[in-house]
Amino acid sequence: MQNTWNSELYEKKHSYVFKYGEDLLGLLRPEKGEKILDLGSGTGHLTKLIADSGAQVIGIDSSQEMIDQSSKNYPSLNFKRMDAANFSFAEKFDAVFSNAVLHWISEKEKVVKCISDALKDGGRFVAEFGGKDNIKNIVESLNKTLLSNGYQENADRINWYFPSIGEYSSLLEKYGFEVEYAAHFKRNTFLDEGVDIIDWLEMFGKGILAGLNSKEKQNILSSIKENLSSRNIKNGRWFIDYKRLRILAIKNSNL
Ligand code: BEZ
């Protein structure tokens, strides 16, 4: 699914995405002198934290908007526009890191192949993204609301990739990885005060709602808001029903 990114809105209202990613760095444990690829580097904040460890890091992202923003945020770092399902480098990396990106890419097998090819033997792949049943309430409500209003084409664009541990581990094993650690866990996340599900959908569901005129879009968004208000509000605050898949896998670990 294509989504166009508003990097300013992302930094202002949805900064929890990269803030949670800081915790994932504990699994990466970057070391001085290592070569690390940040796959889906977004606004570059995690790339910077990896670089602070003394590692040599390259950030790649398929969005020009994100590349521009990350280069502006951290001019001394190296960011390149590249597609996660179709990238290659002459050099091999000690680690590939990816936070909150892989659920956007339906060509999951190509992604895993590119990551495997980019790593040295013994190199590590550390990732977190949406796991099975991630944002289940939102997906159900989006789907139901779009279909009942006759927007089949838009509903067909709901194709985020949220695998189980078993499914993703099998895919990694096919490309020479040994899964050293995997976790699938719930992370209900409160949105900031004054931010609601409509803001979230305008940021992350842009590609799905594209093509609707503003009145149609407002109708759909209001119906979803109404529908989810009984499930995704607690103590007056909206939360997103995230479920994360967290992985540490080693390439050709027995070589
Ligand atoms: C997430 O799990 O981070 C996510 C999934 C779909 C859309 C936006 C975010």
Keywords:
255 residues, alpha/beta, Rossmann fold, eight-stranded mixed sheet, 41% helix, 25% strand, globular, binds benzoic acid
Q: What's the structural blueprint in terms of helices and strands?
A:
Blueprint (H helix, E strand, L loop, with lengths): L6 H7 L2 H13 L6 E5 L5 H8 L3 E6 L2 H10 L4 E4 L11 E7 L8 H11 E12 L5 H13 L3 H5 L8 H10 L2 E14 L6 H8 L1 H4 L4 H15 L4 E2 L2 E15 L4
Parallel strand pairs: 1-2, 1-4, 2-3, 4-5
Antiparallel strand pairs: 5-8, 6-8, 7-8
Helix pairs in contact: 2-3, 6-11
Benzoic acid binds next to loops.
What does this structure look like?
The two termini are 37 Å apart. Helix 2 packs parallel to helix 3 and helix 6 (136-148) packs across helix 11. The longest helix has 15 residues, at 214-228. The mean pLDDT is 94. This protein has a domain at 7-132 and 160-191 and 240-251: Vaccinia Virus protein VP39 (Rossmann fold). The protein is globular and about 50 Å long. Helices cover 41% and strands 25% of the residues. It is of the alpha/beta class. The protein has helices at 7-13, 16-28, 45-52, 64-73, 108-118, 136-148, 152-156, 165-174, 197-204, 206-209, 214-228; strands spanning 35-39, 56-61, 78-81, 93-99, 119-130, 177-190, 233-234, 237-251. It binds benzoic acid (BEZ). Benzoic acid (BEZ) is lined by residues 100, 103, 130, 134-135, 160, 204, 242.
